[in-house]
Design a protein that fits this description.
- The structure is a single chain.
- By secondary structure, the chain is α+β, with helices and mostly antiparallel strands.
- It folds into 4 domains: 133 residues, no CATH class; 89 residues, Phosphorylase Kinase, domain 1 (2-Layer Sandwich); 126 residues; 103 residues, no CATH class.
- The protein is 58% helix and 7% strand.
- The chain has 23 helices and 11 strands.
- A hairpin with a 5-residue loop joins strand 3 and strand 4.
- It is globular.
- 32% of the residues are buried.
């Protein structure tokens, strides 16, 4: 039940949507339909909206409703599995900029958080903010050793305000969930949960500092991308102090050209950096729009990017990372059947989906693209269409994959802005192949196994009993088989495959444990026996693995 105290604010939301002629959203919530009669009495928008497309009207309405609704729109722009492309494109243009709060209040917050007078903390602190957003604002400062820094300060009372607005969003989501005819496709409560999670993360500036620190460590050379250093002694949950960096937004083409920087080389580097973040480090900047990606104008011969704002970062479960990488490789090689099979093997789709039907659907999406020159193919657009097609086959799309999809769109947009003729496929394919060779090779596997060896040895005495119990379950299943000869034959075949898998797993696990022990004990230059035994263990796994009937 919606609390009475949020009803006036809900009515204001409905009134703004009506004023911007977003009737279809009002129609979905039958409770608000009578408000349409009041449209002549509503204040008119600041611009004439009658001729504007619906996406732009929604963007303007969310901007008028305030910062939290802007955040909600930004999250919704990432959900291209839920939102039509024209609306998602407009929502991605939402700018999170609001009027600054007084610099004296920022100074007081810094002193309270860091428990010291501002003069002891910084040599100088400019009370005029460099930038101001709905969650925090940024001030220029300098340290006593002369280094220039920026100080990000949470808005006063922002936690309570966000909690109140999230309750409003949740109430609105509950209304849409209850009354909208397409609520099962829109999934409003799921979107509200994503907004809430994102805001919760952005309220912890120490978390943002930790993300910046890890990204800097991943690109420690600073050749391709530079990440500002965190001043940890001047950082808390409410204050973040970062090294001040200088550059221009990556969409400032005139400034980049004036500096004599090779935009083609920069575009290639941007694509490479994205794939390294996702598949090498499994930690990627998930808000990589031009405002957060600068170009260092001082490096003409070796251009590089500068990363900013680390409030929204992404990572994938290890299994999803592997399956996604294999899907990209199959897509680069136009192996449609492998794409279909990978979606099923990854568990993203039910096992009863027919591979041939899914293959045909994937082929239908991809083939029209491959009639064009590769330089004109949008990999991001193709991935979005593939996900939408797969949803017809009961695809379970995880939030991490959706965030990655949005980041891919951003990065490809940056690459084509810098070089409209960039061949994303030619750049990405060898980079991904190189990363996969480095990640999935016998030596890397043995190193990972050596780290897990203590846990394996701890559980090893239980392994025979677990295998025995599993075999007993298989035997009981055979005894309970139906009298139907075909059902009995299928049950026996399933039991045979289970025994084969158990035997192969037991032998393979034993050999891999022995190989890891030898690798741990042997000198670095005498590790070849462990490699042979590890190969035999992997072969045992392969022989024991049941073959899928297609």
């Amino acid at each position: 039940m919606t609390p009475l105290k949020v009803v006036p604010r809900l009515l204001r939301v409905a009134a703004v949507l009506l004023a911007y002629r977003l009737d279809e959203l009002i129609d979905g919530a039958h409770l608000f339909r009578p408000l349409k009669l009041l449209r002549p009495l509503l204040p008119r928008p600041r611009v004439d909206v009658s001729a504007l497309p619906r996406g732009e009207r929604l963007r303007l309405a969310l901007t008028e409703l305030g910062p939290i609704f802007v955040k909600a729109g930004q999250v919704l722009s990432t959900r291209r599995d839920l939102v039509p492309a024209d609306i998602a494109d407009q929502l991605s243009l939402l700018q999170d900029q609001v009027a600054p709060f007084p610099g004296s209040a920022a100074r007081a917050i810094v002193e309270r958080e860091l428990k010291s007078p501002i003069g002891r903390l910084y040599a100088s602190f400019d009370e005029t903010p460099l930038a101001s957003a709905s969650i925090a604002q940024v001030h220029a400062a300098s340290l006593h050793d002369g280094r220039a820094v920026v100080v990000k300060v949470l808005r006063p009372g922002i936690g309570a305000r966000i909690a109140r607005d999230v309750r409003l969003l949740r109430s609105l989501g509950e209304l849409v969930q209850r009354w909208h005819p397409n609520a099962d496709k829109i999934r409003p409560l799921e979107v509200v949960a994503e907004v809430e999670k994102m805001l919760e993360n952005e309220l912890d500036l120490q978390r943002e500092g930790a993300s910046a620190s890890l990204l800097k460590r991943n690109f420690a050379s600073g050749v391709d991308m530079y990440v500002p250093a965190v001043e940890w002694e001047l950082t808390t949950e409410g204050v973040l102090t970062l090294e001040r960096v200088y550059g221009v937004s990556c969409d400032d083409i005139a400034a980049i050209d004036a500096a004599g920087i090779d935009r083609k080389a920069l575009a290639v580097k941007g694509v490479r950096v994205f794939y390294e973040q996702v598949f090498r480090d499994n930690f990627f900047h998930a808000d990589a729009h031009p405002g957060n990606v600068w170009v260092d104008l001082t490096r003409r011969e070796e251009p590089r990017f500068i990363a900013l704002d680390f409030g929204i970062m992404g990572s994938l479960p290890e299994a999803d990372q592997y399956w996604l990488a294999q899907n990209f490789i199959a897509l680069f090689e136009r192996d449609y059947q492998r794409i279909a099979q990978l979606h099923i093997d990854a568990g993203w789709m039910p096992a009863n989906i027919r591979v041939d039907e899914l293959t045909a659907a994937v082929r239908t999406v991809c083939e029209p693209y491959f009639t064009r020159p590769l330089a004109q193919i949008s990999l991001a657009e193709l991935v979005v269409k593939l996900f939408r097609t797969a949803q017809r086959f009961e695809l379970t799309l995880q939030p991490q994959l959706i965030l990655l999809q949005k980041t891919l769109l951003n990065i490809e947009g940056v690459g084509r802005m810098l070089d409209p003729q960039i061949d994303i496929w030619a750049v990405a394919h060898p980079v991904l192949q190189r990363i996969l060779r480095q990640r999935y090779n016998p030596l890397r596997t043995l190193r990972d196994m050596r780290q897990r060896l203590p846990a394996w040895l701890h559980n090893a005495p239980q392994l025979p009993e677990l295998v025995r119990d599993a075999l007993r379950q298989v035997a009981r299943g055979e005894q309970r088989a139906l009298s139907d000869p075909r059902a009995l034959a299928q049950r026996r075949e399933d039991a045979r495959q289970q025994r084969q898998l158990l035997a192969g797993s037991l032998l393979g696990s034993t050999l891999l444990i022995v190989a890891t022990l030898l690798w741990t004990l042997a000198p670095p230059h005498r590790g070849w026996p462990s490699l042979l035994i590890a190969g035999a263990g992997l072969l045992a796994f392969g022989i024991g693995w049941p073959r899928r009937q297609r």
